[in-house]
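Figure S4 source data
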Amino acid sequence: MRQEQRLAAILGKLADAGSVSVTGLAEDLDTSVASIRRDLQSLEEQKLLKRTHGGAVAVEVIYELPLRYRVGRREEKRQIAEAAARFVTESVHSVGLNGGTTTTELARLLAVSRPLKVVTNALNIASDLCPRPLIDLVVTGGGVRPESYELVGPLADRALAGISLDLVFLGVDGIDARTGIATHDEVEAQTDNCLLRTAGKVVVLADGSKVGKRAFSRIAAISDVHVLITDSSAPAEELDRLRAAGVEVVVA
């Protein structure tokens, strides 16, 4: 197991239990105690946990894991991305993508499909798409959010103000039939809203863990969302509420 995978696994166990032990992690992850100690030190330096004698405890608040550690639900995210790619029909010539693990999976599918203009504020997506001959890539400016590799803020917002797109795909941290779509950061939420306003159709990509959930900053009302693509783990009653609110729901 690579260190990045171990770090994600440690954070997952910490979120479930509130504390972890070095010996328990070494056994569960089939690695050495020394490696686990180095992993815990790395995570503490990033203020993602607090080390204790023989283990670690969760910090009081962890709002968002950095993108490089979000390795869970890989199969679900791939399925969601494949379902999303089917919305890019021959009549769609331009799309927008914000940052996130699921939109990154979608970008990789679009890169080899057909000629397409793609607008994104995500540096990792831009890096993936830049050498692709079929993609006419546009990248916004803005300040960088290290957690998501996204360019956000007034520069990004102004860049998006004069753009018109056929379709926008948004990764979100929460979607709720009453409160709408949301993310953890208020500056990111504003830039996501500006991206949303560029398109005639908005498709939200959210795995089941985010359906029915709220996050700190609202991106937009549910009336601004046309389609939700999720997976089979999404709560059925929440999906019914979203359908009643006028959202087309696709379960990948």
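Figure S5 source data
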Amino acid sequence: MTVLRETWIVFHRQMRLSLRNPMWSILMLSQPLMYLFLFGPLLKPLTAQISQGQATNAYQVFIPGLIVQLGMFGAMFVGFGLIAEYRAGVIEADRVTPASRMALMAGRVLRDVVVLVVQSILLLLAALPLGLRAPWGGVLLSLVIVALLGATFASLSYSVALITKSEDALAPLLNGIAMPLLLLSGILLPMQIGPTWLQRLSDVSPLKHVVNGVRALFRGDISSSASLWGLFWVVLLTVIGLTVGARTFRKESA
């Protein structure tokens, strides 16, 4: 109960800071919205090809990829804020408090997850006038997946930020990781329409299975193998991300 209370205190403080300066959250949402309005219409004539007859609407294929992208990239760069806090002495101040090191990380991660879920809901609402149709059960499960992805990448981002303690080191590292993940996960277009060698290469990326799982949920195939594999991989990634983040926070804040 003490850890939960301390987590809530850290979350409350971090959330107040975000609400005072919401520009970062708005900017992170602007990129998926631009993809939605400027790239989405190009997919309408290709609906049958990109969905292989599994969807009647291009946005049933495109929107799941966008919310997964939001969960990834919306959380991947939160480490820059932690570096700014470290430079301002906030982390040093946290170290002298009796608060659990786990709570110091969990409160920040919880703030990031809440922001990502709100952004995802706004993205889904923006897609409704464009023709998005999906079962509510699948949408709700997809939001859970986005939350878990956000927790994974936020924890890893904070972990790397604490280790590097430098934007100059963090930026190229994250960009070098983000591009292969984006291209091999099938976020913008399903990998099934690509050549065989590219499909085999993308099979090694767990995020491809997560994206396919979310697309299956948007079709209403909640119990399909694609959705189950997607849930399995996102839970496994979350356990790994939170474990690495907690250990790094405990070690670097000792």
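The longest helix spans residues 136-164. DSSP finds twelve helices and no strands in the chain.
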